[in-house]
Design brief:
Strand content of chain B: over 45%
Distance between the termini of chain A: 31 Å
Number of helices of chain B: 0
Shape of chain A: globular
Mean pLDDT of chain B: 93
Low-confidence stretches of chain B: none
Radius of gyration of chain A: 14 Å
Structural class of chain A: mainly beta
Distance between the termini of chain B: 41 Å
Helix content of chain A: under 10%
Radius of gyration of chain B: 13 Å
Mean pLDDT of chain A: 87
Largest sheet of chain B: 6 strands, mixed
Order of helices and strands of chain B: EEEEEEEEEEEE
Helix content of chain B: under 10%
Number of strands of chain A: 11
Oligomer: heterodimer
C-alpha cells in the first residue's frame, strides 16, 4: 500500500473517446504530479499542482487536461488522443516543497502504480 | 537545462554478482540526486539520495556517492539478489526545487 491510488489500472480507448484518469492520496501531501512513462524514454513530467494550484505545465498538448479539486485528488482528462500517447501514466505526491528548509521536504515523491493507457 | 543520463540496459547478472549502474547529470549548480526503483507491477519508490557533493546515500545494500567533479551518481551493490530485479531510475531535483527530473531507467535482471 503506497498511499497513492490510481484508477483505472488499465484503459483502452479510441482516438475519439473521452476518458479520465484518477489519482487519490491519503498521505496528507499538498503537491501532486502527473508523469508519463514510455518505453526507452525518460519519465516525462507533465503537470505539477501545489495546494491545488498548477505550478508547472511541461508543454503538454491540450488533449491532456488536468484537474485538481483538492490536495488529495488529481485527475487527467483525456480527449482525442493519438496512438503515440499510449504509455503508463504515473501519479505522485509529496510534501509542499521537495527541497529542504524550514518547511521540510525530503525530496521524496510517493508514486502510485500507474494507469496503463492504450490508444487505438 | 537539467537532464539525467543512465547507462543503457538491460543489465543481466547472476546472484551475488557486483552491480554498477552509471548515472551522470547536467544541471545548474549542485542539485540533490536520487535513485528510485520500480519493481514489476508497482510504482516508483525512493531507494536512496544525496543532497550535496561527496555525500553517500545508502539503503538495502545499495550505495551511491555524489561526485561533483564528474557530475556522477553511480549506483552500486556488492552482492545482488534475485529480488533486486527491477528498473532503476536516477533523478535530480530541478533548480526551483519543485519537481524531479528522471533518466530513462535501467532494467536489472538477476538470475539464481
Amino acid at each position: 500500500e503506497t498511499g497513492v491510488t490510481q484508477t483505472p489500472r488499465h484503459l483502452v480507448m479510441g482516438m475519439t473517446n473521452k476518458k479520465s484518469l484518477k489519482c487519490e492520496q491519503h498521505l496528507g501531501h499538498n503537491a501532486m504530479y502527473w508523469y508519463k512513462q514510455s518505453a526507452k524514454k525518460p519519465l516525462e513530467l507533465m503537470f505539477v499542482y501545489n495546494f491545488k494550484e498548477q505550478t508547472e505545465n511541461n508543454s503538454v498538448p491540450s488533449r491532456f487536461s488536468p484537474e485538481c479539486p483538492n490536495s488529495s485528488h488529481l485527475f487527467l482528462h483525456l480527449h482525442t488522443l493519438q496512438p503515440e500517447d499510449s504509455a503508463l501514466y504515473l501519479c505522485a505526491s509529496s510534501y509542499e516543497r521537495l527541497a529542504g528548509g524550514l518547511v521540510g521536504g525530503t525530496g521524496e515523491l510517493f508514486f502510485g502504480e500507474g494507469s496503463r493507457l492504450t490508444v487505438l | 537545462g537539467n537532464s539525467v543520463t543512465q547507462m543503457e540496459g538491460p543489465v543481466t547478472l547472476s546472484e551475488e554478482a557486483f552491480l554498477t549502474i552509471n548515472c551522470t547529470y547536467t544541471a545548474t549548480g549542485y542539485p540533490s540526486l536520487f535513485w528510485y526503483v520500480q519493481y514489476p507491477g508497482e510504482g516508483l519508490q525512493l531507494l536512496l539520495k544525496a543532497t550535496k557533493a561527496d555525500d553517500k546515500g545508502s539503503n538495502k545494500g545499495f550505495e551511491a556517492t555524489y561526485r561533483k567533479e564528474t557530475t556522477s551518481f553511480h549506483l552500486e551493490k556488492g552482492s545482488v539478489q534475485v529480488s533486486d530485479s527491477a528498473v532503476y531510475f536516477c533523478a535530480l531535483l530541478n533548480q526551483a526545487g519543485t519537481a524531479l527530473i528522471f533518466g530513462k531507467g535501467t532494467t536489472l535482471s538477476v538470475s539464481s
